[in-house]
Each structure stands twice: as structure tokens, then as C-alpha cells.
Amino acid sequence: MTRQTAHDILSILPLDEIENMCSIKRSEKFGNKVELCAILNAKNGDCSEDCAFCAQAGSSGSPMKNLHEIIDEHRSTSDAGIHRFSMVTSGRGLDGVDFETICEAASAGSGYCPVCASLGILSFSNLKKLHAAGVSRYHHNLETSASFFPSICTTHSWEDRAMTVRRAKLAGMSVCSGGIIGIGESDEDRVDLAFSLRELEVDSIALNFFVPVKGAAVKDENLTEDKLLRIIGMFRMVNPTAELRICAGRHSLGEMAEKMFSFGVTGIMTGTLLTTTGSQYEDDLDLILSTGFSV
């Protein structure tokens, strides 16, 4: 897959041709399975960072959920048949007592579905502690290309994020990383992000379609459904062996949502999201099964 072909997918190749290529690549590695994941907003708001797409910077926030609340949520997620559960916290990076609570929760949930964590920029030693506690996958988005990143955040760098991805892999965890589509980036930025994720050898790619939220500095681009499918297809073809999941903003696909699986999507986020409305597990299950895929 060359950069030129990636650009052609985003602009000139017929949609049915892209769908056929992606469907074949998806089937080779993942068959017809779709993975469901759910997150717990374990600590919200009160963030020191200035990411333009997010409303959590400077907000009052809420205290860290206690150990029993996290364990109970993990248990109920697992009992529902959801494949992965992730503990998510706001801020530059979690530490101190709150970090220890996450580690305790991961250890206590060893009998439930695999546990992931998204705790910001962490040191190698803390990432190793997370893995030892039972966290199998670390999530940390690059968000966009290295060149566009300074336009959306100034309090930390794109390289800070990329380094966290590298550390998490060295610590023994698989890594989920991706970004947000529709925050003012160009097609060149989208291609750059896809190839950066390939170079970092991430195990799972998380794509979010920007949803306007009160307090965010960027505006909705209102990308067409066809364009979103092209973007999904480009990420699939550039990263043929990585899982590809759609998280926030899935409603932007409208009636084309059922097509996302044949364009290469292997997983979706279900349930409550961080700062935007999510979806119901039963509805997501119906969507998957109605399109001929399975969980």
C-alpha cells in the first residue's frame, strides 16, 4: 500500500472497488467477527491540557470512582457478553492514589473480560505496573498527524503520545491507538496518521468521528457518509493486520453504518461514551447480526 493509493482511496477510487478490497483484507485476518468494547469514565474533567476537540480542559470534573464501582462495572460489562472493558481517566497522566486504584481494579477483575486502560501519558515503570496488575491493552490516541497536532494541542506534543505508545508495547501490552476525524485535518493528515500507526505497529486502531460538544474549540466539518467510508477503507488498507474499531461519532455514518464492516471495521464501542451519547448493546448486536457478521 503506497501513499498514493491511500490518497486514491480517499478521493477517486469507486466505492464498490474500495469495499471489495477491504472486505477481502478483513476476511483474511478477522473472518466475520466483530468485537464489542465498553468504557468506564472513571475520572472526568479537571484536565490541564488544551486539546481543542475536548470539553474536559478546565472543567470542574468529578472525583475518581472508587474501587468497588469500577469492579462492579467491569463485572456487569463482562456478564453482558462484551469482549473488552476499558478504564478511562482525564488529565495529562494518572498517578498517585488514583493510579493505584486502577491497578487494584485490574487485579480484582482477572476473572472477567480482558481489561484495558486509557490513563494518558505514563512513564515506562507505571505502564509495567499496569501490565503486571492485569491490564492487557493500553489505549492512547495519536489524535492526528504529527504536523497538524500543534494546531489542536499546545500543552504536550505528538511525540509525547507516540512515545507513550512505544512504552506501552515495551511494557508488554498490546496497544490501541487512533485519532479523531473531522477536526480540520486534511486528507494528507489522515494518510500521515494511518502510516504512523502502521510504523508504530499498533494492534488496534480506534477511529472517532468528531462530535461537537459544548466547550470544544473546533467545529464539525460535516463529512459525508461516503467520505467517512473512504476514510475507514483507507485505514484498513494501510493497516491490514490491525483491528479497526469505530468509537465516538458512529451516528455520522447514518444509513451507511451497516456498510462499515465490509469496509474493514472489526470492532465497535458500545454503551456510554466519555462526553457524547453512546449506543445500546442490544441495538449494536442487532446491527452486527443483521449485516451477516457475528460476535
Please describe the structure with a list of short key phrases separated by commas or semicolons.
TIM Barrel; globular; eight-stranded parallel beta barrel; alpha/beta; 295 residues; 8 strands
Structure write-up:
By secondary structure, the protein is of the alpha/beta class. It has a single domain, classed as Aldolase class I (TIM Barrel, Alpha-Beta Barrel). The chain contains nine helices and eight strands. It has an eight-stranded parallel beta barrel, surrounded by six helices. Strand 1 (35-43), helix 3 (67-79) and strand 2 (84-89) form a beta-alpha-beta unit. Helix 1 (3-11) packs across helix 7 (187-199), helix 2 (15-30) crosses helix 8 (225-238) and helix 7 runs parallel beside helix 8.
Structural class: alpha/beta
| Helix and strand pattern | HHEHEHEHEHEHEHEEH
Q: Supply Rg.
A: 18 Å
Rounded mean pLDDT score: 93
Binned, the helix content reads 25-40%
Strand content range: 15-25%
- The CATH architecture assignment turns out to be Alpha-Beta Barrel
| Number of separate structural domains | 1
- Supply the number of helical segments: 9
How many DSSP-defined strands? 8
CATH fold-level label: TIM Barrel
Q: CATH first level: which class?
A: Alpha Beta
Quick one: biggest sheet?
A: 8 strands, parallel, barrel
* Backbone shape: globular
Q: Spatial order of the strands in the main sheet?
A: 1-2-3-4-5-6-7-8
Quick one: CATH superfamily?
Aldolase class I
